[in-house]
Amino acid sequence: xxxxxxxxxxxxxxxxxxxxxxxxxxxxxxxxxxxxxxxxxxxxxxxxxxxxxxxxxxxxxxxxxxxxxxxxxxxxxxxxxxxxxxxxxxxxxxxxxxxxxxxxxxxxxxxxxxxxxxxxxxxxxxxxxxxxxxxxxxxxxxxxxxxxxxxxxxxxxxxxxxxxxxxxxxxxxxxxxxxxxxxxxxxxxxxxxxxxxxxxxxxxxxxxxxxxxxxxxxxxxxxxxxxxxxxxxxxxxxxxxxxxxxxxxxxxxxxxxxxxxxxxxxxxxxxxxxxxxxxxxxxxxxxxxxxxxxxxxxxxxxxxxxxxxxxxxxxxxxxxxxxxxxxxxxxxxxxxxxxxxxxxxxxxxxxxxxxxxxxxxxxxxxxxxxxxxxxxxxxxxxxxxxxxxxxxxxxxxxxxxxxxxxxxxxxxxxxxxxxxxxxxxxxxxxxxxxxxxxxxxxxxxxxxxxxxxxxxxxxxxxxxxxxxxxxxxxxxxx
Length: 478
Fold this sequence. Notes:
CATH class of the domain at 238-288 and 343-473: Alpha Beta
Structural class: alpha+beta
CATH topology of the domain at 238-288 and 343-473: Nucleoside Triphosphate Pyrophosphohydrolase
Number of strands: 24
Helix content: 10-25%
Largest sheet: 7 strands, mixed
Strand content: 25-35%
């Protein structure tokens, strides 16, 4: 059930109140971290590398020419050939995750003591760096919640399937375009008024607490970050914007109040929304992307052994088979392939005050698995291993992040990729202040956007990639 426009405006204000909520003494950040530690200690987890011939539910299918689950559900590892006029390489082949199902990434919220609280799950995924991370209330593929695995039903599923539910946010958003083939998930937030059961590995948190926890390495998982990145906080008159930002300022204006102004102000941006849309449309029209399926066993420059599918130069990533045992999952024992990184990565936004408002330097980026050729990405998003050598051409602005001074960094954390498909993959997430001498004029595939404009684009499908959304979720107003 969607909400009337007036009610949506009130909800945006309630979301903002939750984002600004102080850390309550009875459920402080140290207490939450201690609760997560105890959740980790309470569950037995065993992840072991194995061989593909030991994956009893997975087969190399000679007819479909891929690696797939025997049920035909969940996902497959396919081979693709890519043709494009983007960048310096016009054609390549690679393995990719093909998961056409649209999963649910859903959070239940409830007013507790006059503040919206979010029902978060301490969830273990087989690929997580540190086992337990804070996940959405419900995080499930269609194969999971239709019980293809013959396990138990995910907790709270019935609330998201109820047609009478009060929907506060509902978006289809993309996953990693270099690893997934046109994969999307439904990012949804629903509100309940009644008391609901609270299971032992769930906890109620304010939005402000979740954002603060994103400031720690690998505490809040990728799925939570993508959902909360889309939360709207509304557009307000300059007087109300100044009131809110003034609440946060003390002797001098804080970074938090500057980001809040960038989020709420829709009048002082460098470029209009229509101009940005025209820029992005021009980028999509300028570049071509054609993806065709090829046999996985014949993907150029990649080889298959019983232990892994890997690139001949050891670059990019591997596909590895694992056996999994996790006590508190719907299915406690299973096996599957996971994608393992072979190089470290950086995802970073440069920010700069323009017209008195913080702007984010956005990159128009083509990735082979994108739905619509180009998505808006962070200023820098790359694997950095190859770029630390002399004579190698680096991505635009990468040196600014590699040589960043601590005092110029607003965000600098390690954040995990989604642990259900990726094995212990984490990228350095950074938001970096550009110097006063950094130019406003930028290359044609870059554009300055305010946080308010980024939030506006997040209302629609497939405009901001998941790396950009992850960074946006880390922006704190307090």
